[in-house]
Amino acid sequence: MFGGKKKEEELDEFNIHVARHRPEELAKLAKTTKFTRKEIQLIYRGFKQECPTGMVDEDSFKNIFSQFFPQGDASQYAHYVFNTIKHNHTGKISFEDFLGILSKVSRGSVQEKLQWIFGLYDLNGDGLITKNEMLDVVTSIYEMLGRSTEPQVDEHSAKEHVEKIFHQIDANKDGVVTIDELVEWCSRDEQILQSLDTLDTVL
Amino acid sequence: MASVAAWLPFARAAAIGWVPIATHPLPPAPIPKDRRKADDEKLLINVSGRRFETWRNTLEKYPDTLLGSNEREFFYDEECKEYFFDRDPDIFRHILNYYRTGKLHYPKHECLTSYDEELAFFGILPDVIGDCCYEDYRDRKRENAERLMDDKLSENGDQNLQQLTNIRQKMWRAFENPHTSTAALVFYYVTGFFIAVSVMANVVETVPCGLRPGRAGTLPCGERYKIVFFCLDTACVMIFTAEYLLRLFAAPDRCKFVRSVMSIIDVVAILPYYIGLGITDNDDVSGAFVTLRVFRVFRIFKFSRHSQGLRILGYTLKSCASELGFLVFSLAMAIIIFATVMFYAEKNVEGTNFTSIPAAFWYTIVTMTTLGYGDMVPETIAGKIVGGVCSLSGVLVIALPVPVIVSNFSRIYHQNQRADKRKAQRKARLARIRIAKASSGAAFVSKKKAAEARIAAQESGLEIDDNYHQEDIFELQHHHLLRCLEKTTDREFVEMEVPYNGQPKRPGSPSPLASPTHSAASHPGLLHACCGRCCGQRYQRSEAI
User: Fold this and answer.
1) Which residue in A has a C-alpha nearest to residue B16's C-alpha?
2) How many Å from the N-terminal Cα to the C-terminal Cα in chain A?
3) What per-residue string of b and e applies to B307-326 under the rule 16 or more CB within 10 Å gives b?
4) Of A107, A142, A160, which one is at a domain's C-terminal end?
């Protein structure tokens, strides 16, 4: 019959064009990251279960993140974390990127960890953290708490927190924080260095 | 192993970003790093319990899939010397057959989405589905896609409800969804009423209303009560013009609006009046004037804004355009053939009606549609035979495309019904999800208290419990993560008011609240409760093993 071709083409657009990605060899990953073979196997199985195509896009990332913070809204913090992971122009991250960041942040040196933290707060990537950037990130952290906390979270909580802490980190009081000021602030306090270590995970 | 739990390391790693701004120091790690679990990875089940065996060469036939490449090493279990996949064994059977025979089949009783997921997991493109099953697959996929589009559209529509800023957007929303505000509803009914009035006036105008003075013949009401009808017409046109201008003002994309079908109908409905005002009651142009009045009947199409059934009918006709085209084309062919034959058969009869082939067209049409007025009748024997064949074939030709159109209409109509039903169901579903979330928050707080009690027991020197189950470790670390968040922001999670009203449990919904007296080891962890909707089923399956 006449004129039926267009419908099939429209349908093909519905099929999301998924790029399937296969990761590097297990042995190679075990060499380049700080995880053992067994641990990488465990991590990959979980990764593959959530993202069968081998690539994570931002929405699934936010979804997964939100499951660990059931009371609040973790999507904005997940967005900032997602941006710290180098991804290609399609906006998805592969298993190698994911594992690389995980290895660096949970088992890397103090310098690597602080570098990542700096990258997290420096939203526009210009090498300086302004008060507004810190305010955005801290607001997203407070959003993860949700409503049922004691004392309650309101719209000023994040601002107060930033006011208190920003000028402590900003040693030369020029209104921006550089990577050196951040390193200086974290190295000075023994407890902060310890805290950096507690967030590694035993698999 | 619980899959979302495998993302916990990443969530914990990402939490390092809280460290510089923490108001209090973060609590120490719950599990000392040098202690590794004794029996790691006791996941010794093949595709969920069913063992499959095949040659290595069979798998390596397709090296760009999961099973055919190095990727399967990630799923190798050294202790049992086998590969373990926690997937559906029934669907896996088809996937393995693909490697064996080279043809991928689609089982009709499986859900399309789950099948697609398995294909995506094992790295197989749906395009390799064999010809025997491909049609079915595409049809199901199209149905699903249409449903998704409907859902997405309605979701967008719902989202936009909250973002109206100015008068224009509010007006547009009032025009498109009359049920959103009283003013919109009033406007809707008023315009509907005036459309009806206008159409009725057009009809009544031509009813005979008494005799013509001084001449033979009846006088139509339109001419007797000229002023009344003129006033009525003016009122209706003013309302329609106002409506059109308001819609034009409120439309977000004016060019698109002007080109849309409804606006063209609006314009065609009101234009004759204005043109009629311009033309005087002159005999020369009154012919044209009369023609214009015919267009006034298009006002009846304005009702399609008020009736969803009409819109569906219009949409059906549009989507069946190819079938309708076929119908018209085949009818035209048949008419020409039969008219020609008829003409030449009846040409030589005395005083015949069949004066030319176009004249015979009328006879053919009337006969093929089984009307049979009888104003043109064949006289010769050949003509009667042809007439008989013509009427028989007419029934066939017309009956053919009709079922296609009807089934299209039925499908679209039912889809519309389903879309409305789904919208209502979704609201109820979202409400239930919100309640489930609230209950999981309460579960977390109770778990937190239990965990704190256990840690206090550890710190005060009681025996360290070395028999951690796998879930336990992840639970501990998940709680530690949430406690870090508390310490960073100087807040504490507390119990929320949960309106627990005993909702009937849906398959896949989280299990009921964990009471504080349950020990953590024997109960699926927090992750079960909080990852309710999306992961509930997977958890239930893994727990059942």
Assistant:
1) A196
2) 61
3) eeeeebeeebeebbebbbeb
4) A107
Among A120-124, B125-129, B495-499, the minimum mean pLDDT is found in B495-499
| pLDDT digit string, tens, across residues A27-57 | 888 888 888 888 888 888 778 877 778 888 8
Number of domains in chain A: 2
CB distance from B535 to chain A under 8 Å?
Answer: yes
Same domain, A121 and A50: no
How close is the nearest chain A Cα to the Cα of B208, in Å? 47
Comparing CA positions, the residue from A173, A171, A140, A169 lying closest to residue A157 is A140
pLDDT of B438 strictly over 80: no
Among residues A87, A79, A59, which one has the least CA distance to residue A123?
A79
Range of the domain at A89: 8-107
- C-alpha distance from residue B43 to each of B74, B80, B201, B263 (Å): 13, 9, 80, 65
What is the pLDDT, as a whole number, of residue B242? 92
Window 143-162 of B, Cβ < 8 Å to A: 145, 148-149
Q: Is A128 found in the same domain as A100?
A: no
Chain B residues with CB under 8 Å of A106 CB are 9, 12-13, 16
Instruction: Evaluate whether residue A167 is within a structural domain.
Output: yes
What residues of chain B lie within 8 A of the CB of A136, using their CB?
none
User: What is the rounded CA–CA span in Å between residue B436 and residue B502?
Assistant: 11
Q: Distance between CA B295 and CA B273 in Å, rounded?
A: 10
Q: Do A53 and B120 touch (CB under 8 A)?
A: yes
- The residues in B 433-452 lying below 8 A from A, measured between CB atoms, are 437, 440-441, 444
- Answer yes or no: is A124 within a domain: yes
Q: Which of B76, B141, B321 sits opposite A3 (nearest CB)?
A: B321
- A107, A132, A152 - which closes a domain: A107
Q: What are phi and psi of B208, to 5 degrees?
A: -70, 140
- State the nearest Cα–Cα gap between B19 and chain A, in angstroms: 7
Q: Does B110 touch chain A (CB under 8 A)?
A: no
Provide the whole-model pTM. 0.51
Read off the pLDDT of residues B134-150 as tens digits, 9 standing for 90 and up: 888 888 888 888 777 77
- Dist. CA B85–CA B99, nearest whole Å: 17
User: In this structure, are A103 and A115 located in the same domain?
Assistant: no
Cβ of A117 within 8 Å of Cβ of B489? The answer is no
Residue A149: inside a domain, yes or no? yes
Same domain membership, residue A85 and residue A52: yes
CATH number at residue A179: 1.10.238.10
Whether A89 and A129 share a structural domain: no
Chain B residues in contact with A22 (beta carbon < 8 A)? 66, 69-71, 123
Same domain? A57 vs A126:
no
Residue A95 lies in a domain: yes
Task: Provide the shortest C-alpha distance from residue A49 to chain B (in Å).
Answer: 6
Shortest Cα–Cα distance, B18 to chain A (Å): 8
ipTM of the complex, rounded to two decimals: 0.76
Find chain A residues with C-beta within 8 A of B45's C-beta: none
Each as own residue / partner, the long-range contacts of residues B328-337 (CB below 8 Å, 24 or more positions apart, any chain) are B330/B397, B330/B400, B331/B368, B331/B397, B331/B398, B334/B364, B334/B368, B334/B390, B334/B393, B334/B394, B334/B397, B335/B361, B335/B364, B335/B365, B335/B368, B336/B361
Residue B426 has pLDDT above 70, yes or no: yes
Q: Which residues of A fall within a CB distance of 8 Å from B72?
A: none
Alpha-carbon gap: B468 to the closest alpha carbon of chain A (Å): 12
CA-based end-to-end distance of chain B: 11
- Distance, in Å, from the CA atom of B207 to the CA atom of B387, rounded to the nearest integer, reads 39
Which residues between 268 and 327 in chain B have a beta carbon less than 8 angstroms from any beta carbon of chain A? 321-323, 325-326
Interface check for B12 against chain A (CB to CB < 8 A): the answer is yes
The residue of chain A with its CA nearest to that of B25 is A191
